[in-house]
Amino acid sequence: MDRRSLVLVTVDCLRRDRVGFRGYSQPLTPFVESLAKESIVFSDAIVAGAPTYFSFPAIMASRYPLGLGREVLGIAPGEATIATTLQEAGYETAAFIAANPYLSARFGYDQGFRQFSDFLDSRLSDATVNWVPPAWAAWTRLNRRLERATRRTKITAAVYDELYFRYCQWRSSRGDCSMDQLRRYPAADIVVNAACAWLNELSGRPFFLWIHLMDPHHPYYPPQEALQSLGISHITPRRARFLNSFWNREDVSSRRLQRYRKEVMELYDAGIHWVDRQLSRLVDVLKVHQRWSETVFVVTADHGEEFLEHGNRYHSPSGLTEQLIRVPLLVRASDVSTFGIVQEPFSLLHLAPTLLESLGVDAPLSFRGLGMWKDISAGSSANRPAIVECLDACNNPMSVSDRMAPRLMAVRDGDYKLVLRFGASGEDLYNLKVDPEESLPLPANIAAKERVRLLQCARDHLQNSREHRDAGLALRARLREIRQRIDLKSSPLGASRDESAVEIGEHG
Ligand SMILES: [Zn+2]
């Protein structure tokens, strides 16, 4: 066999500090840790945007998320990606995506994949099952009137919110439930099983397999087995439901949320542990089929997750904190001469061209990132600042007003980080060496040289984005979206499909 194969595993919401090779005290990822010993580990991998919809254009198409303008979501029709490139090079291609609507065919992520399984149909049928009967509809109307009345004062609003939360908890606690019933996404074992079935049928051709796992994504309902394995089986499904509901509340103070932070993080950790176990199984299957030695195996994430470190939960792009933008990245290949750790910042914009280079396949001209495989595998790497961009607090990119939000950008090198909010004047500069928690921006008169250097990077980036914008691709993407909106309106299932995207829009 001449050419090597590629397995790309992306894990939603996986923080850099949770993976074993980053030294996290809990043994969450023993398998990935063992893999790190024969891999190149990027200790400072930075996403090009967050959350999912602002991160994946760089991972798949080596393009900044706003590179085609704020109107474009996902991959544009006809846009070259790592998948289309490898398919054209004769690779078998398949993707198994754990029901993240933003990575569906609707947003162009199926391009280049001969088999594309997004597991979204099961979500649709769930939406139909969760239909509200007419008797409840009357209660809902009454409840809304009651809520409006209590909003007149702060105290009555707080009392209403508390009582309503407790009522919902009481109602949902009647009857048994399991973690499997509560989970919103297919767990890693289901997705990996589907990928293994595909591998079992594979011919001898080189292949590209992309697996996207959602286990660490909220609501956090890990398999019971993962909790047991970590020794935290005291969290029952009922408790997990309470924790998720409470953690999701907008009406309580950070102090009250802090009370449950440890348990919520335990649920999150168990999801990561489950992913690790399933990746071990996947590699076993590759070994059985004698494909392991020729496979480049990559594990990374689209963004991290926040647990109140800066007052936020989940992964809203309302600040490009280190918890959000730093992700694990490990590339395992059998013929690398120097295994080790790349300490310099590595933007995921460079991932697709670097992987193509490792396979000996030319990257498309449209890729904005650089192929760095030769340098990195020979033990040298350049120190280039990483750019991260998104729209400020755009939690639902299906909403026009969210998509009109001002740009939020970070320029990040090894020591310094500049955060630019285009909706407000000024910028925040952090010295990460002395302030890794980003607790206090530097005063404007400190580190002027670094500030100017990073501002210059930001300016160059904006200029390059303008110069390289492909108006034809942007137009095709806009047309796709308009057609889909028309189709959705005329389809009986359209509303629920649209809502499912909007629902996840808050999370991505
Ligand atoms: Zn995501």
Spans of at least 5 consecutive residues whose pLDDT stays below 50 are: 123-133, 493-507
Total strands: the figure is 17
Averaged pLDDT, please?
89
Gyration radius, in Å: 23 Å
- Biggest sheet: strand arrangement: 5-4-6-1-7-11-2-12
Distinct small molecules bound, one entry per kind: zinc ion
Globally, the shape reads globular
Largest sheet: 8 strands, mixed
What is the count of DSSP helices, taking H or I runs of 4+ residues? 18
Question: Which structural class fits the helix and strand makeup?
Answer: alpha/beta
Cα(first) to Cα(last) distance is 39 Å
What proportion strand? 5-15%
Helix content: 40-55%
Task: Indicate the topology.
Layout: E1 5-11, H1 30-36, E2 39-42, E3 45-46, H2 52-61, H3 82-88, E4 92-97, E5 115-117, H4 120-129, H5 134-150, H6 154-173, H7 179-182, H8 188-200, E6 207-213, H9 224-229, H10 237-247, H11 254-288, E7 295-301, E8 306-307, E9 313-314, H12 322-325, E10 326-327, E11 329-332, E12 340-342, E13 346-347, H13 351-359, H14 373-377, E14 386-391, H15 400-403, E15 407-412, E16 416-421, E17 427-431, H16 448-468, H17 471-490, H18 494-505
Parallel strand pairs: 1-6, 1-7, 2-12, 3-13, 4-5, 4-6
Antiparallel strand pairs: 2-11, 3-10, 7-11, 8-9, 14-15, 15-16, 16-17
The structure holds zinc ion (ZN).
